[in-house]
Amino acid sequence: MNVLAEDGELWNDPQKAQDLMRERQSLEDQIAAIRRLTSSLDDGVGLIELGEEEGDEDVVKEAETSIRDLKSEIDARQIETMLSGEADKNDAYLEVHAGAGGTESQDWANMLLRMYTRWAEQRKFKVEVLELHDGEEAGIKSATLHIKGHNAYGWLKTESGVHRLVRISPYDSNARRHTSFASVWVYPVIDDSIEIEVSESDVRIDTYRASGSGGQHINTTDSAVRITHLATGIAVACQQERSQHKNRAKAWEMLRSRLYEVELQKREEAANATEASKSDIGWGHQIRSYVLQPYQLVKDLRTGVENTNPQGVLDGDLDEFMEASLSQRIDGGVGQVADLE
């Protein structure tokens, strides 16, 4: 790896160079983490032996606590080493769409957008807003994020599905409890080495004026672009740039990524039809429930994982849910899929 990184001709291909440097940094981080965990474990074992020799129960308990604290991090690292799907290491696109229910559902969609943004920021991932449509009164109708970071797609891929919120609505003057739904869809950013052919005759391209927070300042022309794949109904949109040409190019990239993700799902189902039927994460499938009133609980309906601190979860503490979902898929044999033909 170091030899490749020091190759004087490496930066003749900037994309290849960036990918290599990112992989190098990831490997260095993993090696450093293993060394740190090993050292901490050795220290803990040494303290236990010392405490037992001297009959100091406090030292023994302190060391045992430190070792238990290491377990959760070791488990997370173990999960990450199993992110071996062909697109797991890639960046990710994440879409959020409000369900039926007007303002309440649109506010819920905005809460989910914030939750995933916070989660990504905690992992030092970069987040770009590619498309955002504000709700009529509050919240959002839809949004698309580009999340950049090693294994971003691998971590996020099990988050696709319908998320349900139960709370006393701040928009209901009678303070009644409401149930709201919003959909999340995650798909990988694909690089030039993966070829997905789509003809212009297979799509419908619409242009419109950008909307969303600050949208009126983005441009005064129809620069936003939406591309709809006619055969599947898959639609993507981008309004990030002032230039319609740049938004069109990004939308094409997003569409190819969506179609690639569909192919990945088909191959996973073919590899293990029974397990795929248990862990299907398509549209319309409810994966998690967030209850704020009359009690507080977040429950994943696939794995049974529960958390009684919804505010923490909504602030981005999602790792326990992601790890459980990934473990379920790995244990079920839904792992790396074959290369696209």
Write a concise synopsis of the structure shown.
This protein is α+β, with helices and mostly antiparallel strands and 341 residues long.
Number of strands: 11
SSE string, helix = H, strand = E? HHHEHEEHEEEHEEHHEEEHH
By CATH, the topology of the largest domain is Alpha-Beta Plaits
Calculate the terminal CA-CA distance, rounded to whole Å. Answer: 28 Å
- Radius of gyration equals 23 Å
CATH architecture of the largest domain: 2-Layer Sandwich
* Spans where pLDDT lies below 50 across 5 or more residues: 214-219, 272-283, 333-341
Percent in helix: 40-55%
Q: Beta fraction of the residues?
A: 15-25%
* CATH class division of the largest domain: Alpha Beta
Question: Which structural class is indicated by helix and strand composition?
Answer: alpha+beta
The main sheet comes to: 8 strands, mixed
User: Counting H and I runs of at least 4 residues, what is the number of helices?
Assistant: 10
Mean pLDDT: 83
Total number of distinct structural domains: 2
Global outline? globular
